[in-house]
């Protein structure tokens, strides 16, 4: 557990759709990269070198600057045994840590339960985006899911007096049902938690002032909202958001699409870090950026198809910056049915965050004991 006076906060940015690892951290010096990517490849002279073998995609300059400052850990070859190339199944595995069966509990939902077993803070975890990622699902654990922080709340479009009357009616509708069975009890508590959480969260933008100008895309705006919540000091410990649904699913037109995506994401990560720095909040916040799988080694002529052996980034003052794990081999006899092999089990990646950052027991959260990756400072 890292030493800090403030409670550690974990922020998760999910790159939905399966980010192309080969065109993100590019093995520019490997002739097999050019052989396998005759069309969908990053030109060698545009790669930003990390060493004499791999380098950053040229659209990742802001993250490269953070990397050079020692603020970014690159986790290479992340995956799991017998990888699944379905978006839905693979993401479900990442969300529940259940590769062999359909999971019902999210790993972060379990973490929230461990942090706040009595449910005393309805804002222990907040999701930004539509719907609720399965990673956050856990029976009896309240999670606030916010589309727009500026307008988030219950019946916020009403005049104050009308809203108070409506909320009073709403609370009385829920209150009498308490004690009529576990399902009704759960719905009752969820309704009351929504009331509490909405009214607390709406204060975050009012307390926030920053010189950082985020981009206009949804990821940038959600990360700005996350910064607002963190700096409002509401006791939130886990915050989650997702790049636009399946935006990283680059089967076609990848070079243009992928460049735009990483331009936006890279700048957003840098803006988020700078925003926290301006508010003296980088000492207790760590950001995980992950995707559900990588993509096939050989391009399809316009893009790349679903593969394995992805890449993850962990960003913050408390990370051990640099490369972690080996870059998967591109040699034909080292591939898994045309895909990169994984070198790091994602549950080990999670275990490090859960134990070494959040200070929790990782085994019940990730469903077993997995080799941790030493990317958090002791």
Structure commentary:
The chain is α/β, with parallel strands linked by helices. It has two domains: 9-147 and 210-366, Alkaline Phosphatase, subunit A, CATH 3.40.720; 153-201, no CATH class. It is 34% helix and 13% strand. The chain has helices at residues 31-36, 61-68, 87-96, 107-115, 160-174, 182-201, 204-207, 218-231, 254-278, 346-357, 362-366, and strands at residues 9-14, 25-26, 48-49, 55-56, 72-79, 125-128, 144-146, 238-242, 285-290, 310-315, 322-324, 344-345. Helix 2 packs across helix 9 (254-278) and helix 8 packs parallel to helix 9 (254-278). The protein is globular and about 65 Å long. It starts with 8 loop residues before the first strand and ends in a 12-residue tail after the last helix. The model is unreliable at 154-158 and 173-192 (pLDDT under 50).
């Amino acid at each position: 557990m890292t030493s800090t006076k403030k409670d550690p906060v974990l922020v998760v940015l999910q790159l939905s759709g399966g980010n192309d690892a080969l065109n993100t951290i590019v093995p520019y010096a490997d002739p097999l990269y050019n052989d396998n990517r005759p069309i969908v490849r990053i030109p060698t002279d545009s790669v930003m070198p990390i060493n004499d073998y791999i380098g950053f995609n040229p659209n990742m300059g802001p993250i490269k600057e953070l990397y050079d400052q020692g603020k970014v850990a690159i986790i290479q070859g992340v995956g799991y045994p017998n990888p699944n190339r379905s978006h839905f199944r693979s993401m479900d595995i990442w969300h529940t840590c259940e590769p062999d069966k359909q999971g019902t509990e999210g790993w972060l939902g379990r973490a929230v339960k461990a942090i706040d077993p009595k449910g005393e803070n309805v804002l222990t975890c907040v999701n930004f985006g539509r719907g609720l990622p399965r990673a956050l699902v856990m029976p009896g654990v309240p999670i606030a899911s916010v589309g727009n922080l500026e307008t988030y709340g219950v019946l916020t479009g009403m005049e104050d007096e009308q809203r108070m009357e409506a909320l009073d009616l709403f609370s009385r509708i829920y209150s009498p049902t308490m004690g009529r069975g576990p399902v009704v009890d759960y719905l009752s508590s969820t309704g009351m938690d929504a009331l509490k959480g909405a009214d607390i969260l709406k204060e975050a933008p009012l307390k926030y002032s920053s010189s950082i100008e985020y981009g206009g895309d949804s990821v940038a705006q959600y990360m700005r909202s996350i910064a607002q919540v963190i700096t409002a000091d509401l006791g939130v410990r886990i915050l989650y958001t997702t790049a636009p649904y399946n935006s990283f699913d680059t089967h076609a037109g990848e070079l243009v699409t992928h460049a735009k995506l990483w331009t936006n994401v890279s700048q957003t990560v840098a803006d988020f870090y700078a925003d926290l720095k301006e508010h003296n909040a980088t000492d207790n916040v760590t950001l995980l950026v992950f995707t559900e799988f990588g993509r096939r080694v050989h391009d399809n002529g316009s893009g790349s198809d679903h593969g394995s052996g992805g890449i993850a980034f962990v960003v913050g003052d408390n990370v051990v910056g640099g490369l972690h794990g080996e870059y998967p081999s591109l040699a034909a006899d080292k591939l898994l049915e045309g895909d990169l092999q994984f070198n790091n089990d994602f549950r080990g990646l999670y275990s490090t965050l859960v134990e070494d950052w959040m200070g929790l027991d990782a085994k019940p959260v990730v469903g077993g004991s997995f080799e941790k990756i030493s990317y958090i400072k002791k």
